[in-house]
Amino acid sequence: MKSLLALAAAIVLAAPAAAREQQPDVIFVPTPYEVVDEMLKLAQVRKGDVLYDLGSGDGRIPVTAARRFGVRAVGVDIDPQRIKEANENARKNGVAKLVTFRQEDLFKTDFKEASVVTLYLLPDLNVRLRPRLLAELKPGTRIVSHQFDMGSWKPERKVELNGRVIYLWTVPAGKP
Ligand SMILES: C[S@@+](CC[C@H](N)C(=O)[O-])C[C@H]1O[C@@H](n2cnc3c(N)ncnc32)[C@H](O)[C@@H]1O
Asked: What pTM was computed for the model?
């Protein structure tokens, strides 16, 4: 048994670093469409916004934002299967020109141009992401999270819908 475990550990360690990095930090669980609509409403998405969904799954948040508000939107997901589904979703909804999906690690991706960021991750992932959101996003950028908060960064709005919770923050001018 010990030697089997040692063999398994050796295989994992021998795998190229890039291959090991491709594991999602959270599995794909889609946000229900009525919650997507409420997230976009809470973020006051409007013409001219650039929306980023970090961990975009089947792309429903960027696609809905582009379809309803005509905004440019970017989805970032580490899983190639999700990127495929998301591109198909954008194509079916006629918004492929407005929406881009990038197969990248959300902890490394460049999201500086966003004016709205949407999240449906996990509490510890939100907290891990928080310093970059505060440091790299422009003041006034709205961040909306389905279900999970940001630890000590208190939300300015909290809305409940069908047993789900949606949080809103705005990146402050005088950043902490
Ligand atoms: C809970 S799902 C949310 C999907 C979508 N945002 C929604 O609300 O319907 C989380 C997504 O994050 C992706 N993900 C997990 N870890 C990631 C990482 N480090 N970088 C990019 N995407 C990641 C997963 O593949 C999954 O599609």
From this structure: 0.90
